[in-house]
Amino acid sequence: MSMPTPPSSPRIRAAGASLVVAIDGPAASGKSSTAQWVAQRLGFRHIDSGALYRAATAVALARAGDTFDETTVLSFVGELSLEPSRHTFAPMWNGESMEELIRAPEVTRLVSRVAQMRGVRAWVDANVRRAAEGRDVVVDGRDIGTVVFPDAHLKVFLIADPWERARRRLTQRHGRAPTDAEIAEETERLVQRDAKDATQTVQAKDAVLIDTTYLTQAEQVERIVSLARVFRDGGPEGLAPRS
Ligand code: CDP
Q: Residue 148 CA: which ligand 1 atom is closest?
């Protein structure tokens, strides 16, 4: 399998400026886990923008049940913060970890609705940009390379066959190989979520497209790390060295 071609016009990092790697793609394309590995390998921080949409959904659901509107969601997001740990930023609710809460099936069912709310999108974008300020980051989501960081140094768009995405998601969730019937059901759910998220899931024109259907996680991480190193270490003539 050949290596992906680097973006045609790589952005040059200004001396001393922080570096942004944007990883976008549809549900369960492996963005978050890949972004986390890539960040660790490069010594960058990882920011998972989807976790913030999930956190806003979880807090609205807990406080108001599932009939909330945009005003209700926005009235609760002030209870949330994005806190740094060693390699990542995690959403916290009044100082408590939300790791389990944001992965609840009910949150996954409702999150696309919350992600359509313009005020919520503005809240997520502001938090992500603030977290990225002054540091090298790997940010994953749907619109990072188009809306949040249109000037990201490296943009990657991950895709994979829906059946394979469903199989991976179930294996991760249950820790065992799923049956074909389970995969078929999950594929349907994923395709429905793809449709609901379609407006904000946009591949930037200058993104490197990686189809991970036949790649292992280690292989996809390796590809992105090698592309990002060009920017981090200063590779080809003209790219600024790391300050
Ligand atoms: O991991 P998975 O792909 O299932 O989803 P996620 O990255 O945790 O994102 C959860 C939801 O947040 C998505 O289904 C989108 O509705 C929304 N999202 C978004 O609209 N824009 C982003 N930049 C990130 C997530």
A: 23
